[in-house]
Fold:
Amino acid sequence: MEDLALKSAAVHPAGAGHNWPRNDGIELDLSWVLDQRVNLSAAERRVQTLPGRRTVKKDAQAAWLLKAVTCIDLTTLNGDDTTERVKRLCAKARQPVRQDILDALGMGDRGITTGAICVYHRFVSTAVEALEGSGIPVAAVSTGFPAGLVPHDVKLREIKASVADGAREIDIVITREHVLTGNWQALYDEMRDFRAACGDAHVKAILATGDLKTLRNVARASLVCMMAGADFIKTSTGKEGVNATLLVTLAMLRMIRAYEERTGNQGRLQAGRRHFRREGCAELPVPDEGRAWAGMARTGPFPRRGIEPARRHRAPARTSCQRRLFGPQQTPDRIIR
Structure:
């Protein structure tokens, strides 16, 4: 048991996902973009097989739930947000799981935190101050989130203001009109400008897949954004009628795989606004479809019930949990997007 604990001892610091290499992008290849097709019936069949083939139960469920915690961008994006709400959210990000539960699993010294905190620009400085010393990065939604219909120069100024206040990740929303009208050059140029405005901060391109109508549009938009230098591609804002689904996740992961195979740059996917327990565990293994890391974002305070009942009777399996969660070749850095 002690030897296994030693093998699992190497832990990346909180917010390690922020240290991923940047995606410099490539020139827009319209022929590659227009060649993308999605076989809807085949994709639906594939998605239907995933929950039954890759279920996680008992000790494995506790391990995957802890892994899911480290993937979350803990988020509050509401019109009634306040400074005190953001501070409470930051406190939850530092300690998302009760200490007695972590101790019972043998994970008390692992530094389990959420992947990031995501807020509007107004609260970036508040979150940065509240998270000082934790290593947890602050992400800011920008570019007229969630609709993205403000003037382009305003979008760029908003990005720069958030970076100046300490945001280390910027969540931009694309102009959906560019996708719906097939104006891929405009989408590429827009994304390049966003990438440049972010400077050293990572940029996440929110596609708002519920507004894009077809999986073909989702696939093409994913590819264009990665060509333009998006470090992460993200499914949704959480404000659309339809947000992240396994179907669009699969389509985006296949584009990440294609982009990596051609360019050598590993893309990252983030799924917006997921229900934590069942859907989270079902989707964590899905990145195998694209050989990419995946993360989940959830709007609102972290649900205490999401982790605790699932492992209430699992405390004795501390060694199994360590092995399943980290293993000899897997460390609990931020497996995000």
In short: Strands lie at 72-75, 116-119, 138-141, 169-173, 202-206, 232-234, 269-271, 294-299. The two ends are 33 Å apart (CA to CA). Confidence is low (pLDDT under 50) at residues 1-13, 274-282, 290-337.
